[in-house]
Amino acid sequence: MPEQTPAVHQKAKTKRPRVTGVGRLLILVYGILALAATGRSVFQIIDRFGEAPVAFTLSGLAAIVYIVATIALIAPGAVWYRVAWFTISFELAGVLVIGTLSLFRPEALGLTSIDPFGRTATVWSVYGMGYLLIPLVLPILGMIWLSKNKPVPAEPDETTATGTAGASS
Q: Around Cβ 134, how many Cβ atoms within 10 Å?
């Protein structure tokens, strides 16, 4: 019996989800931002798409990024870990590019002003100032957290290895 304890302990270690400690808060904020961005973009697209189609399409894209990032942060495994890295990196790039464009060339996005609370503003306009700069800070925190919470590679279970070795003898 004592031989099974390390295998059970090892199995528990490899199945450890990223949804612990600070990760829960990070996921909660991503989930809230996903809901806020989705609500905003759906309303903008339905109510006034003709006013700023580029900006509102980008709002919809931001909502999709937040939804996928939230799911990727919750889901276990190496594939979801890579999806989380991709979406969070894309989010940071989007915030930086859209934020810069909204400040220096708002007309390129179809924005009527650089007001972060304005009628045509998006989640990433002015670096997310309308959302208290959370869209700018969140991906940086997410990347730091992901780098410290890499998925643990699954090691072969000792009971499975002995069972297989015994079957071939």
A: 19
- Does this model's pTM top 0.90? My answer is no
CA 63/CA 40 separation, integer angstroms = 9
Distance of alpha carbon 73 from alpha carbon 31, whole angstroms: 10
CA atoms within 13 A on the CB side of 152: 12
What is the spatial distance between Cα 94 and Cα 100, in angstroms, rounded to a whole number? Answer: 10
Q: Give the total residue count for the chain.
A: 169
Express each pLDDT in 114-139 by its tens digit: 888 888 888 999 999 999 999 999 99
C-alpha closest to that of 136 among 105, 166, 98: 98
Q: How far is CA 161 from CA 3, 8, 49, 158, 164, in A?
A: 13, 13, 59, 5, 5
Gyration radius of the chain over CA positions = 22
* Residue with the two structure tokens 């870990």: 81
Please state, in angstroms and rounded to a whole number, the distance separating the CA atoms of residues 148 and 84.
13
What is the rounded CA–CA span in Å between residue 13 and residue 7? 10
Nearest CA to 121 out of 67, 35, 43 is that of 43
DSSP string, 121-140: --TTGGGGGGGTTHHHHHHH
